[in-house]
Model the fold of this input.
Amino acid sequence: MGDFELVWDSRCAVAESPVWDAVNRRILFCDIEGRRINALSVDSGMRDGWDFPEPVGSFGLCRSGRLVVSQRQHVILFDTRTGASADLTGSTGEPAVNRLNDGKVGPDGAFWVGSLDGNAPRQNTASLYRVTADGAMTRVEGGYKNSNGLAWSADGRTMYHSDSTAGMLEAWDFDPATGARTNHRVLALLTNEDGRPDGGATDMAGNYWSAGPSAGCLNCFSPSGALVRKWAFPVPGPTMPCFAGGYIYVTSLREGKSPAVLADHPALGGLFRAPAPAAGAPVGLFAD
Done:
């Protein structure tokens, strides 16, 4: 597998949203349609997990120690210690075929989460939302097909986002105190051969790392959108990178792969890692 090793042969349909929980020294990641969040202790190798009533599109860490979790069309707070959950927001009000997708806690302490259109082919009905601890869910952008790729620069001054279906990577200047965004720009337009942008993460060197499942790679971009590195992944379908403890962890997907591809790559849907090329940017905490 080259630089990467398989650390959990989880065989998720769509493993996504890896998050570094530094306090507990564990990597958390979800199986979207499996309706589950998995936890891997990086020191002991112990595994844990929690099941949910709806698909888990993404989640983030809270200051209280809870998780902020996107369900199909609303967001909840979940306590991993007690198993208690509490609704945080009302419904997005999007079409019934849509669901919440990629999400991440920003430097402003809010949970930013996007949706994806459930039609085939996808239509421009998806949106990006900002969720605050009072339960307010504000639609801040619209017209997407598949909102994805959320990440912030290490100083909190640049916000990255993508539309996977459109192959577009975009950015804004960001105010970490208020969540205000200015100076929108499109950084890159990517094809299937390039690796359309899925989940993303940033490093302390100022780079943005984007999973490119359509090309089986990680793409590393400079803040201006220049391609700095294309890193081949050992299996088709990497979905999102996450920096943690000197490693870069990457989730992957099995969904939609042919029997022949699955036979060649039985570990699809697993969690992989490789030595990190740089330290990761700070992990945001939801201000609950």
About this structure: The domain at 5-286 is CATH 2.120.10.30 (Neuraminidase). The chain has one domain: 5-286. Residues 28 and 39 are 4 Å apart (CA to CA).
